[in-house]
Design brief:
The structure is a single chain. The chain is an all-alpha fold. The protein has one domain. The chain has eleven helices and no strands. Helix 4 packs across helix 6 and helix 5 runs parallel beside helix 9. It starts with a helix and ends with a helix. Keywords: Acyltransferase, Cell membrane, Lipid biosynthesis, Lipid metabolism, Membrane, Phospholipid biosynthesis, Phospholipid metabolism, Transferase, Transmembrane, Transmembrane helix. Catalyzes the transfer of an acyl group from acyl-phosphate (acyl-PO(4)) to glycerol-3-phosphate (G3P) to form lysophosphatidic acid (LPA). This enzyme utilizes acyl-phosphate as fatty acyl donor, but not acyl-CoA or acyl-ACP.
């Protein structure tokens, strides 16, 4: 029991590392005070540029992947709990008074650890949606939901975990959903952001 608790605590603390906040600070930006105010890769992408945004997203993926992968090699059962709490750590980080991101990149990190095929499917769905609609929020919650149900093909436990993570992320996106319904949600042109970053 103590071992399981320590693994879960390890996962939560890893997930709590606010890479988006730290990376933005390197550019002299307080990510909580600009753009959407969300401590996530998309806000860094918009506010600091492609390099910093992509770096933030990669690190957010890794902080969930590493503890989940390590736990998986220790015990498959514990790995599911570790995966869950890495995402909870990202969304409710102790270091930022429990005000974090929306859990998308960290959830993908758990996909890479528990079933890499799901991570590939995620990007194959998410990227075209972002490029065509330019709504990162819509692409994210749609793809997380799809992956949640697809996961049941592999195992009920994985399906349950990924549906739960999708629901939590959808809850965190509730303000985005309201803006989507009101047609006031901000669009993100990833290609344009990359072009501007190259010019700089």
């Amino acid at each position: 029991m103590l071992t399981a608790f320590l693994w879960v605590l390890f996962g939560y603390l890893c997930g709590s590392i606010p890479f988006s906040f730290i990376i933005a600070r390197l550019k002299g930006i307080d990510i909580t005070q600009v753009g959407s105010g969300n401590v996530g890769g998309t806000n860094v992408l918009r506010s600091a540029g492609a390099f910093y945004g992509i770096l933030s997203m990669i690190l957010d993926v890794l902080k969930a992947f590493i503890p989940t992968f390590l736990a998986l090699n220790f015990s498959g059962e514990i790995a599911y709990f570790v995966a869950f709490f890495t995402v909870i750590g990202h969304i409710y980080p102790i270091w930022l008074k429990f005000k974090g991101g929306k859990g998308v990149a960290s959830t993908v990190g758990t996909y890479f650890a528990l079933n890499p095929t799901l991570a590939l499917i995620f990007y194959l769905i998410w990227l075209p949606l972002v490029l065509t609609t330019k709504y990162v929020s819509l692409a994210s919650i749609s793809t997380l939901s799809i992956i949640g149900f697809i996961s049941f093909i592999y195992s009920p436990k994985l399906g349950l975990l990924n549906v739960l993570l999708a629901l939590i992320s959808i809850y965190k996106h509730r303000s985005n959903i309201n803006r989507l319904l009101n047609k006031t949600e901000r669009k993100t042109d990833i290609i344009e952001i990359f072009k501007n970053s190259i010019k700089k």
